[in-house]
Write a structure and sequence with these properties.
The complex is a heterodimer.
Chain A (H helix, E strand, L loop, with lengths): L1 H24 L8 H13 L1 H19 L5 H14 L12 H23 L7 H38 L3
Chain B lengths: L1 H7 L1 H22 L7 H73 L8 E10 L7 E4 L12 E4 L2 E9 L4 E5 L6 E6 L5 E5 L6 E7 L9 E4 L11 E9 L6 E8 L8 E6 L8
Antiparallel strand pairs in B: 1-2, 1-12, 2-5, 3-4, 3-12, 4-5, 6-7, 6-9, 7-8, 8-11, 9-10, 10-11
The chains are: A mainly alpha, B alpha+beta.
Chain lengths: ~170, ~280
């Protein structure tokens, strides 16, 4: 319960940053997405089930708060969180490059699902070249910021785990 | 047997269930006429998020302002001299315009025209933007308490910006013209040709449904027609940059550059009490 509340607070802070500062900076037209890093981290640390739930909740929150059609972000982040969790038990979490690579790959997955679903309902009309350019750029940014954010989230997750296991 | 299968495939079931829910929410949004109704859940999210966005936006504004001041100190002296010359010129022009205004008023009285009521507006500040790359909305810092309602038009001094799609007590969300969900009834000022400006998810807009033999040229100014339920008439939308005649199509199309700088919006005016009467 405490962990969910902490994830909720982190999601709101990430969103507030995204709609204010990060949406203005936009280097090369792509936006950094700390909320996606949160989703990917939940998947890596807790497995596909929690990754999917955190992804769907964070995506829906993002849709509500940013004005995009509801369901697009939910679907994209759901796939990203679930896919990130599929490596549970098979990947070495201590590897310093892991979160960067995972965030890069999951940004590609998220945007592919997002654009595909948007095309399906005739709401996204973007050329494949432009979509690939923006997605690859966003994936690079997310890959870079994921490394420190994941380490921090991992420590926080461990702390919350110890807190919940402490005898009352 | 069934329960053990369910337990074994629990992860996949969770994923598929949430995926179906997301698709259902998405298709429901697309089928509904106004495309987006978030209700109490949206109000609750914005109740938490809007104040945080306002604080961060003000901090960002202060930092950006301070940075600009540092950058501009060097250019102030030259600009001051230019501005003094400009003030002199504007004073002269102002005196001429005053005379024209008085003459205009006299002629209007003579012709019996009724003076058009100016729009009632509310000034708002942009505190948040949609971070996605292919949709365009902004969050502003005033809502229903200031008299803003769904479907009110948003403008800057340069022209039309969009319309309000959600309004909370102290916040509103404005759908900008380039958003693919945006459509505005327009007229070409020079030839009075009618069409519909639609967003493309890109900076330039597209005018659709122009008559095949419509008289439209690059440089023509485009204004709102006032025919739809949302926008008042004669608000400047932009100017035509390109006209195309798709072969085999019944209509002509044109590309329009919005007159307002939509990528650097800071303050807007919301036209209240003159937006849609229905669909609120």
């Amino acid at each position: 319960m405490t962990r969910l509340a902490v994830y909720g607070i982190l999601a709101v802070v990430s969103l507030a940053l995204e709609v204010t500062w990060l949406s203005v900076i936009r280097p090369g037209g792509a936006v950094l997405d700390p909320l996606l890093i949160l989703v990917v981290s939940a998947g890596l640390l807790r497995g596909p089930e929690e990754g999917a739930v955190v992804g769907a909740a964070a995506g829906l929150l993002q849709d509500v708060a940013t004005g995009v059609p509801l369901g697009l972000g939910m679907l994209g982040n759901l796939c990203a969180g679930f896919s990130a969790g599929l490596g549970e038990g098979r990947i070495y979490l201590e590897n310093v490059w892991l979160p960067g690579i995972a965030a890069f790959a999951m940004t590609m997955v998220r945007n592919a699902v997002w654009i595909g679903a948007g095309h399906l309902v005739s709401l996204v009309n973007v050329s494949p070249g432009e979509a690939l350019r923006v997605t690859a750029l966003a994936a690079c940014y997310n890959g870079v910021i994921a490394i420190p954010i994941f380490q921090w989230l991992r420590r926080l997750d461990g702390m919350l785990q110890r807190l919940s296991e402490r005898p009352r | 047997m069934l329960s053990s299968t369910l337990i074994r495939h629990r992860r996949l079931l969770v994923f598929l269930t949430l995926g179906v829910v997301a698709l259902a929410v998405l298709t429901e949004q697309v089928r509904s006429p106004d495309r987006r109704r978030i209700g109490w859940a949206g109000d609750a999210v914005e109740f938490v998020l809007a104040p945080a966005a306002m604080v961060l936006s003000r901090i960002g504004g202060a930092v950006s302002g301070a940075w600009s001041v540092l950058n501009e100190i060097g250019t102030l002296r030259t600009e001051n001299a230019h501005l003094r010359a400009e003030v002199g010129r504007l004073r002269e022009e102002n005196a001429r315009l005053r005379a024209s205004e008085q003459e205009n008023a006299r002629l209007r009285t003579l012709l019996g025209f009724k003076e058009q009521e100016p729009y009632q507006t509310v000034a708002v500040r942009v505190v948040g933007r949609d971070p996605s790359d292919w949709f365009s909305t902004v969050l502003v810092d005033r809502g229903t308490l200031a008299g803003i309602r769904r479907n009110d038009s948003a403008v800057t001094s340069d022209g039309l910006v969009g319309h309000v799609i959600e309004a909370g007590l102290t916040w509103s969300r404005v759908l900008l013209l380039p958003d693919p969900r945006s459509a505005v009834g327009v007229l070409v000022v020079r030839s009075r040709e009618a069409g519909v400006v639609e967003g493309q998810g890109q900076p330039l807009l597209r005018v659709k449904y122009l008559a095949r033999d419509a008289d439209v040229q690059p440089g023509d100014e485009v204004v709102t027609s006032g025919l739809g339920p949302i926008y008042p008439r004669s608000l400047v939308v932009g100017s035509v940059v390109e006209v195309s005649h798709p072969s085999g199509d019944m209509f002509e199309e044109a590309v329009v550059r919005p007159s307002a700088d939509l990528s650097h919006l800071e303050e807007l005016l919301i036209i209240v009490g003159d937006g849609a009467q229905g669909a609120r």
